[in-house]
Write a structure and sequence with these properties.
2 copies of one chain form a homodimer. With about 500 residues, chain A is of the alpha/beta class. Chain A has helices at about 20-25, 65, 90-95, 105-115, 120-135, 135-150, 175-185, 205-210, 215-225, 240-255, 260-270, 290-310, 330-340, 350-365, 375-385, 385-395, 430-440, 475-485, and strands spanning about 1-10, 15-20, 35-40, 40-50, 60-65, 75-80, 160-165, 190-195, 230-235, 275-285, 310-320, 325-330, 415-420, 425-430, 450, 460, 465-470, 490-495. In chain A, the strands form 5 sheets. Chain A has a 6-stranded mixed β-barrel with strand order 1-5-2-4-3-6. The longest helix of chain A has 17 residues, at about 290-310.
């Protein structure tokens, strides 16, 4: 069956087409059926939607968002044929039965995910099966390999370092300090990171306030070979592309199956050519990992997976029960990171975490003796060499022309939230803070966010400023303020029952 | 936010709207986000799609298929607001963790399914969680109750009977014989059945060849009170409507989680007011249930669930390893059922199964002594009273004017498939037969299908007709023939290794 192509400006699904209803009925096709679309030598599987008026007989509607990617122009002719049901649906059903998958089966599945051969329903079935039935370390290693192989990769000579936080704690801008500190000591770190999905700011969102982050693999390699490190956006390069497709269904469900988390993180590091990796697991109330037992289990899994992939992995279990530092939101976090690099007074939690992680990198890279890494990192930071290296990275990536913390533009409108009583901050809700920052406009509105004046354990008097909300929109600021009054992220208690240290470290 | 309504002729999702991209960005909405759509006093949750050209600013696109159902006209004004994440997503996540759900939680979830508050991704997560983590009998009973309560119901005085086959075996037209036989003895049976989803013909498709099946609840009640029984289409009445929504994601995955199967079947029977129910579990190779252990477990669950719901349930485990009778496809099956009712020679498997199930109904309804039901049913069938009652049912539902098996119009084109060797039919593939019948056009093309000349255990000589394919389209017939040669549903073996009885029964 041959059809003329018509462009449809609608964001529905990259793997969808619209057929005339009569054309479809004649061919025994129903809405939701899968067909193969032949584009010259290539073919891809798409889902059929039906319309009587939208496309005429003999026409086929292709969504604008995928027109270019498919290499099509309006008026082109494509051929379609009934599609076979992808074999990887049976692989998903095997996992649903709790059986162990084979190396080939997993590769087939990942290939189909990357090629958009699976519908959202099928992809969800995969993710939920992994969440409920689990995977053993063989399967996780095969999954990681398959994710690496189905994307682009970078090759380096010698030792390549990387750091990665599994996320879940707001304000976690440590990489902007740890990465230049390690690079200043001579380590090579092609760090890529993600934009926010459900958080107020991903590392890529924060870095983008100061420099371009959409770098090609060639550019990343070039910068790493000359300057020593990047802080780039992983989404601009085709690293383990299965991950983005999988996240599309994980996100609305708010789940992050451990086997998938392990494979996704390690596949991206492996694809970048890293062979020495430090993983940060923030742990605490309302973080992704809530207790030590869970954190240690995950840490062991990262280390074992690293061994199987020929990578040395070190894990830092860090305190994630409240934000790292005081800033939440892209511009405010960039400002706070610059302040730390400039030696200005900032929250000790930020300095301690950043230098601890940099310290592990330095020890693994032979730049500091075992147990002395953190002290060496602190000295590099204090000396101004971290700041100098950070400015070099910004310059190499494409600077926005901001060179000091004072120059960072934050939200034009801001409003303080004050305490209604005397006491101590007993609890501080990560989730409530993220919610408020997102209502204020984070991460899209880079100037939007929160600056925390009071953190856990701090003494508070009635009328004291607890935090300040920033936004580029007066309306959004009002909405965020209302949310703040409703959610009250700070729980003020009459006395301190237990002082919770703001930072834990474990090698 | 208020918007003008625009009609969009596209079958995408009933619970979707199209927003102008700039309108959405201004309001912080992304493609895939969930919003509440206020239609006068009612509100419903919909998913946002984006377009720059399809709808102007201030306009909102509503799909044609849901326009009427939402009670909207083009040009109407609707208001939208950010939607809260439905609480039942947390219920689904609880099931993902393998925890037992509460009565209220299950009700909330079913309510959200019926109200279209869940996306396909969320619905899939529910179905896969039930498939992998299971449910105990408390949960299944609560699920059944919730499915009944969220739909329409029918009330009768006294004993109401029903029969239901869990499906999976082609040619299963027994209800067209068993139901009028039981009704002829004075039992009341408001039977509803479904159309084919993945099979060649549902009972509703078969019955529709002879009579209207889209009856209202009032009409069903009226016919049952006067004639004694219906053979109606369940889709025309709002019985346990959660089931149809759930099937939408089960079907592409080819799964049918047992707890959901139990609840869906029993909820529909309960909603129709039935209190005495016979469940048919076809068992055998390529049927839904493959062995006795599985069939007995499912039978016990049906009986226990019935007890909890105040319904008496009896289960027949029947042979499902090959088609029931010889006909597959709506018109051919209607023809074969009429032949059986007319006393013409038909496959004994059809007579045995139909009268065995009618016999159980007769025994449960006090119309035959224990152990004598089948003989009584055979006598009613032989006497012509079953046929008479069946014609009364057809008349009451709205006859198509077909009164005998000779008058049933079958596919204009037909072609024989012959044996290439001598021997015996060792295996007969249900799946291959259904595939061929569907390619020929079943169930949409009512005249399309297969008439089997040879079944398991039959002696075959080279050149003998194995089966005949029917279709209303010459092109489809050709395609079906090619599929038949490729799939070869009959496996001809040199000698009979084991004679498999064509029918099993268990009370």
């Amino acid at each position: 069956m041959e059809f003329r192509v018509k462009k449809v400006d609608l964001e529905i699904g990259e793997n969808s087409i619209i057929m005339n209803r009569e054309d479809a009925v004649e061919r025994g096709l129903n809405a939701g059926d899968r067909v193969r679309l032949f584009l010259g030598p290539r073919a891809r599987t798409v889902i059929v939607h039906l319309s009587s008026t939208f496309v005429s007989r003999g026409e086929i509607g292709i969504f604008a968002s995928s027109m270019e990617e498919m290499g099509l122009k309006p008026g082109d002719t494509v051929r379609i044929a009934h599609a076979e049901r992808p074999a990887s649906i049976d692989v998903i059903k095997k996992k649903m039965r709790g059986e162990k998958l084979g190396r080939e089966e997993i590769f087939e599945l990942v290939r189909d995910i990357v090629d958009d051969n699976l519908t959202d329903v099928e992809l969800t079935a995969y993710v939920v099966s992994v969440q409920t039935m689990g995977m053993d370390m063989d399967e996780i290693a095969w999954l990681t390999e398959a994710m690496v192989k189905t994307g682009d990769t970078l090759d380096f000579e010698g030792e390549i370092f990387d750091v990665h936080s599994i996320g879940g704690v707001p304000g976690n801008k440590y990489a902007l300090i740890a990465v230049p500190t390690a690079a200043a000591a001579g380590l090579r770190i092609p760090k890529t990171s993600s934009r926010a999905i459900s958080s107020a700011a991903g590392t890529a969102d924060v870095m983008e306030v100061l420099a371009r982050v959409d770098l090609s693999l060639e550019k990343i390699k070039e910068i790493v070979e000359t300057v020593g490190a990047t802080l780039a956006w992983g989404g601009a390069v085709n690293l383990a592309p299965a991950d983005d497709k999988i996240i599309r269904v994980e996100y609305p469900l708010g789940i992050d199956p451990r086997p998938q988390l392990l494979a996704s993180v390690m596949a991206k590091k492996k694809a970048m050519g890293a062979n020495v990796v430090v993983i940060d697991i923030p742990m605490g109330e309302e973080a992704k990992v809530e207790n030590y037992a869970e954190a240690r289990k995950l840490a062991r899994d990262f280390i074992e997976l690293g061994e199987r992939l020929g990578m040395m992995v070190d894990v830092a279990i860090t305190y994630g029960g409240q934000p790292v530092g005081r800033a939440i939101g892209p511009a405010l976090e960039a400002k706070e990171a610059l302040m730390a690099l400039e030696g200005k007074p900032v929250s000790s939690s930020l300095i301690e975490k950043s230098t601890a992680i940099a310290g592990i990198l330095l020890e693994l890279g032979g730049k500091a003796r075992r147990g002395e890494g953190k002290a060496v990192a602190k000295e590099i930071l204090r000396s101004g060499r971290s700041r100098e290296k950070f400015l070099e990275i910004i310059e190499a990536q494409g600077s926005r022309g901001i060179e000091s913390s004072e120059e960072v533009p934050v939200g034009k409108y801001h409003e303080d939230v004050t305490s209604m009583e005397d006491g101590y901050v007993g609890r501080l809700s990560n989730k409530a803070l993220v919610r408020i920052a997102r209502i204020a406009g984070s991460p899209r509105d880079k100037g939007a966010g929160i600056w925390l004046n009071k953190k856990k354990g701090d003494r508070v008097e009635k009328g004291d400023v607890l935090f300040t909300i920033y936004s580029s929109s007066k309306e959004r600021l009002e909405m965020a303020l209302r949310a703040a009054r409703r959610l009250m992220p700070h729980k003020i208690e009459g006395m301190i029952l237990e002082r919770i240290p703001s930072y834990h470290e474990e090698g």
